[in-house]
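Handout, page 2. Input:
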Amino acid sequence: MSEIRKERLTLIPILAEKHKEKFIGRTALMKYMYFLQTLRDVPLGYNFSLYTYGPFDPDVLSDLDLSVAMKISRSTLEQYPGGYGYKIGAGENANGIKKEKKKFISKYQKDIDWLFEKFGTYSSAELELVSTIVYVDREFSAKKTKDKNDALLESVREIKPHFDKEKIRKFIENLNGNGLLKSKK
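Output:
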C-alpha cells in the first residue's frame, strides 16, 4: 500500500475522533478531506470534481471502505425519520496506524485543528454549500476570473438553487473574511 494511501486512511479515524460527537458522516468526511487538500495544502492526492453534493472524489469512499475492512475505522448505517446516514468512527486498529504515521499526523495536526475550528460545527448541508463555494471560487481563480458583481454568488446559486441567496452570501462573506477565497482578492 502506498504511503499516501496509509496517510489518508490514518486521517479517517482522526477526523472522527476530533469531531465533538466522536463520529462523522460520509458528507463530512468528503468535505473535510476536500478542505484539508484545497485550503490547507495537505498532500492527499485526491482529484475532486463537482458532484450533486459538492466536491467529490470516489477515492475518499474507497479509502473509507478499506479503512473499515482493516478495522482502522468503523461505519454504521443509522436510520433517521427522514432517511438514513452513516456514522463513521475510529476502529479497533486505529491506534496502530496512528502510531505508524505519527510523523504525518504531527506535521498536519495544526491543519486538522484549523479544520475543526473553522468547519467543525457545520451541518452536512452547510458543508455541502461551503465546499461548493470554495470549488467554484477555485474554478474562477484557475480561469483568472475575479468575482465582480456577485458572479460567485450567482454561479453557486445556479448549482445549489435550494439555498437562498442570503445564506450563500453569508458563507461567501465568511470565507472571504477568513482569506479563503481567491477570486475575491
